[in-house]
Amino acid sequence: MRLPDDHRPARHWTRRWWPLLVACPLWLAPLSLTQAEAPAPRGLPALGDGGDITLGEERRLGDQIARALYRDPDYLDDPVIDGYLQAIWRPLVAAARQRGDLSPELAERFAWDILVGRDRSVNAFALPGGYLGVHLGLLATVATPDELASVLAHELSHVSQRHIARLITRQSQQAPWVIASMILGALAASAAKNVDIANAAIVGGQAVAAQSQLNFSRDMEREADRVGFGIMTEAGFDGMGFVTMFDKLQQSSRLNDDGGFPYLRSHPLTTERMADMRARVPHHGHTDAPREGAGRAPVSAAYHAMVAARARVLAETAVDRLRALAATAPSLNGPQADPAALGQRYAATLAALRLRDPALAATGLKHLRAAPPADADARQALDWLELEVLTALPSAAPPARLVSLRDSALGHDHRTSLLLGARASLGADPATRQRAAQRLQTWTTLHPRDATAWQALASLHLAQEQPVRAARAEAEARLAHRDAAGALERFKAAQQLARNRPTDHIELSILDARVREAEQLVREDLREANRR
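Now predict its structure.
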């Protein structure tokens, strides 16, 4: 049978980029660089400065690579998963700044975007310019939010400690844009599925001082562990998450990793790294011991269980397995105080939604609502799931319930609520669509790089029969994903539409200005391409 649109076979998001991510620890596994003025980490060895490449150059390089990943079919901006990742990521960034591990200039000039890939393998990686990548497989595998925080804090530390810049300094005979060209060339070769070309480009770049690169990389991994541990614990997460995550990776290594744990290849474990982390966690054998000075954890176990279940279902491509999972909904009617039981119910309900089965979805929602989780974040996640189900399958509950959830979502400033509320408003009355459009317009004004919000706004404008504004919002979405040429095409299309119908003078002025800005960006992209 034909799969629904969201059941298309995953093409392994970074597996196509894997020659780039694995074979070149010089560039990607260690991550990005900062300005030379960034404060040195306390009590850590000096690994060299990063003065050979500017912040602007690195950011532009990161933008180029991110642009390719944004275009990948397996790139996923799921509002619920993004909301969960931000709940972990923001405290980590705040703690890094408070500790002095992240300078104000670096925090301001880098992207700090997390890109999610629809891939079942366990992996996370970092790119130049403050971009991070996370696979659904990692979200589905980590048992606690503390384990995920340990991975993100480690990657954040690669950024804040200027590791790519330091490695480039060690290979100062190579100009930064030569390295940039090789990275982008590897991306292009991978996209063309010509792995031999990609490997050849990367191996050629690694040939110089390979052993010194390896040793340098090990130093950086240890440094990222130590800085990351300090960041995550100061952010309120349990440092035991580092130890348990290492244990998972070590067990996978012992079982002869068959490709499901690519994180092991870009971040190889050593006995020294594991021992160091264990020594930093007092009473590391007791994960339930309270942390000194700790208050409420940034993310609850129940919230984590629901999002981990969501990641498992969204990464699943086999209809038979989704059917088997959804079929468990009627039998999961016992107590769900255990987060694992809550996750099972969530997974069954979401699987029913993906299969467009209103009966099973309604059964899953009934059991979830019969014993809702205690904490507010998890209850909010349950509301989001119910809103998704009722938007796609209105027959799963009375219409009044959909209206209540939709109106509540539009009343929140949370990105996830706004996006799901806007999606639910597409089939509503004109007044509701107008309210949703106004809420999204305010959001995009404050967050102009939110491509998904711009695309949702474009859909609402189309539903309101406002094609000029819809075309402009589509252009802004492309610009947010670093596609200046595509944005320019849509801005000009909006201008053409405006000439054929009455259009507000302010809207015309905005379009004219955006066309000029997009043209400038296209010229800059061409200049950079010529430099390479």
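The first helix runs from residue 18 to 23.
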